[in-house]
Amino acid sequence: MFGPLSALGLVVSLLVAATVLTNLTVTRYPTVAVALGHRPAVQTEGTGRLTDVDVPGTVSHFAARPATVYLPASYDAGASDLPVLVLLTGQPGHVVDWIEGGRLAQTMDAFAARHGGAAPIVVVADGLGDTEENPMCMDSNLGNAATYLSVDVPHWIRSNFRVSSDPSAWAVGGYSYGGTCALQLAVTAPSVYPTFLDISGEDEQRRGTRSESVAAAYGTDTPANEARFERATPLNILSHNSFPGSAGAFVVGADDEEFRPQTERAFEAAVASGVDAHYSELPGGHSMQVWAPALEQEMDWLGGRLGLLG
User: Fold this and answer.
1) Among 17, 203, 222, 242, which residue carries the largest CB count within 10 Å?
2) Exposure of 6 by Cβ count < 10 A (0-12 exposed, 13-18 middle, 19+ buried)?
């Protein structure tokens, strides 16, 4: 039998072990508290600031966790009509991943310093619902994640911050699951997100095999549901539609043997559909070694698309 102190020690040990395992496979958490989803204070020394917010699923009824918003120093100085970048994490994941391993504040502060203080408002939204959940960024039996990210999140941002109402000033991006999701949103809601950043994304939404994904989304894997699922995949949408007003950046790790071919296929499909897309590889595999530098690399391109560079 374990005494109270022994049991507590066992729980702490299991949490630490789980954190170490997560570090090896997903990202680096500096503390057990961060692994549990509690964002640590981030000091930006007079530049941008981070704040946690609740973004309700008013239309979608999607049960999202709190988001984190990066507000550039120019916003606190009174700037208005700022562009918006919505960022999404991988799966498993938490919005804190973009703050810590992804170095979001540092990247945005550095961009602002290079461009006379200009920077977007960045909203790291929850596209999962929980760390281990995988709603495949679509509306299905797993929840209305797509409607949450394309309707509820933009509406809430416009209602609570002084941001641009021009869709050309809005972008969505993410890595791994978030990269796939960014592409899905870009092709299903191009009037909301005409600019996207797909970092190490897959060529379609997945929750195991195709059969398992269909069953998870719609209850059973039938021919009708298979066809329904196929119609919702980004490659299928790209093959049947033209997106001359959209632009996207595809970035992936040169050593990412599983996701690199998928990102390449997505890029080729985007180009064929008229998307103004570009592709690049960075040293590394499927990790923050690639994802954080990818955002830094693409910020000048994003800044140009969002109207921040004149």
Assistant:
1) 203
2) exposed
Average pLDDT of the segment spanning 269-297: 98
Q: Which residue has the tokens 């007003």?
A: 245
Give me Rg for the CA atoms of the chain. 19
Per-residue pLDDT tens over the stretch 118-157: 999 999 999 999 999 999 999 999 999 999 999 999 999 9
Distances (CA, A) of 230 to 115, 204, 210, 219, 233: 43, 9, 10, 15, 5
This prediction has a pTM of: 0.86
| Cβ burial, residue 78 (10 Å; 0-12/13-18/19+) | exposed
Phi, psi dihedral angles at 284 (to 5 degrees): 125, 180
> Which residue is it, tokens 């979001």?
104
Half-sphere exposure of 58 (CA within 13 A, CB side): 11
Backbone angles phi, psi at 172, to 5 degrees: -130, 145
174-232 tens-digit pLDDT: 999 999 999 999 999 999 999 999 999 999 999 999 999 999 999 999 999 999 999 99
Please tell me the predicted confidence (pLDDT) of residue 36.
39
